[in-house]
Design goal:
0% of the residues lie in helices and 36% in strands. By secondary structure, the protein is mainly beta. Strands 2, 3, 5, 6, 8, 11, 13 and 15 form an eight-stranded parallel beta sheet that branches. The radius of gyration is 17 Å and the shape is globular.
Length: 188
């Protein structure tokens, strides 16, 4: 059997609905998905409305550049990239994520208070800004310093308030456009 990988460098996959339960935008059942750009939004499926990475050992997702996967829904809410058991998003050495990248993520086996679940291979802590938990009310993305990967952790996203010269602001990500990140203190 010949290998068949899918490479997406741009364009938009939107307004699709899965005929089965999985992968409204993309359903990776075997082989690899290489996502380095483009936008996957507005798709619907019961599981993995944007992208579903299946259980086959040959099914993998590699990201680089500035792909955007957001706004994909199932009946419970956001369902952007869903990783089946044992799967993580691969970030290849030398192929960086860049400003504008945004990936909503869910694990098919959810984290618990006792056990978080990995969502990437080994990466630098700076990659956390590109990932968000689909279910922000119950989970958040954190960097695991010991194992050097990003993981989903039980507990809502923590919102931190900062004060500068009597000005209070909340650092929030505005997406999809314009896309702004506060990366350091500002003076007003």
């Amino acid at each position: 059997m010949q290998s068949s990988n899918l490479e997406i460098t741009g364009g938009k996959i939107s307004e699709n609905k899965a005929l089965g339960d999985y992968g409204g935008g993309i359903h990776v059942t075997s082989d690899n998905l290489y996502l380095s750009g483009g936008e996957i939004t507005g798709n619907a499926a019961q599981i993995g409305a944007g992208i579903y990475i299946g259980t086959d050992p040959k099914s993998n997702m590699y990201v680089s550049g500035a792909p955007k996967v957001y706004g994909n829904k199932n009946v419970d809410g956001d369902s952007n990239v869903v990783l089946s058991a044992g799967k993580v998003i691969q970030i290849e050495s030398g192929k960086l994520l860049t400003d504008g990248a945004y990936l909503g993520v869910t694990k098919q086996i959810a984290p618990t208070a006792e056990n978080s679940v990995a969502i990437t291979n080994e990466v630098d802590s700076s990659y956390a800004k590109y990932f968000v938990a689909d279910d922000k009310d119950n989970y958040h993305v954190a960097w695991n310093e010991e194992n050097k990967y990003l993981e989903l952790v039980a507990g809502a996203t923590v919102e931190t308030k900062h004060e500068h010269n009597n000005v209070v602001f909340n650092p929030l990500v505005s997406f999809p456009n314009p896309n702004y990140y506060l990366t350091s203190d500002i003076t007003l």
